[in-house]
């Protein structure tokens, strides 16, 4: 705890040490000038002396105030260069330096024989006390302002670190989604192409063309930090085209996505993960296969993308696999509570995965 207090105090001490002496002296001169005007507001002075003598007397008062104020400024500057272990020690050091500066200034005036300075101990102590109160108030206001500025800077630094952590988390989640691309899918597809080239070259050529199209669509998605709904749909379509040929008629698929929504920003690989999940856990386990329908629509200020299949339905974990967990985590990082992924069973069979997130105008950048 003491080490944290010490380190948190260093920025404030540094700010005090780096304050230019010219600024300190100018501030002291302003305070001294304002205090000297007290002489000019004593009406009996104007009634008993001509204006030139009044101004001469005010200049003497101003001189005395300047001497004490500058001594306090020098004392504060010296104290600012002394390291303190905490706010209490720093406050005590500043208070002691103000008192010492005021006393030194009064002693200097007495030694110089200033006409406006009384040598009586009560009078000297009274002037020192008044200077201590005034200078302490000014120093306290400045110090509180600096502390508020430091707190604001610390909050900004915390927010920046939080944003960086969110971005790093989003990047890790995206990497996890990228790693979800089924390696067996690639090898099985190549094995199917090889087999079809021997038994049905026409189907093998079609499958190879679809597979090349899938790879072309997948390359940008696997290396991009941002995507559009149109690019995500193209990747899902290319993937399903390959799977449909591999399953030899057991998979049918369709898309219903308005062209106006294709340019909307969309998290990469989210739809691809839902489609792959529907194939792997819904269609492939079914003896009769099934169909997958991907649709998108605009609901108020949100986009809803639905991946619905007629496969075997929710089984086992009920949609809590790693891929879906990564999608949910990424949506939470990017959009907070404004986005959601929900899964529900369909009648007579199948799963409806609904992905809802804000439009571009409300989306939170990663």
Automatic annotation (TrEMBL):
It is an enzyme of class 2 (transferase). SMART domains: HATPase_c. Pfam families: HATPase_c, His_kinase. It comes from the Bacteria. Keywords: Kinase, Membrane, Transferase, Transmembrane, Transmembrane helix. GO terms for molecular function: phosphorelay sensor kinase activity. It comes from Paucibacter sediminis. It catalyses: ATP + protein L-histidine = ADP + protein N-phospho-L-histidine. This is histidine kinase. Residues 266-361 form the Histidine kinase/HSP90-like ATPase domain. Its EC number is 2.7.13.3.
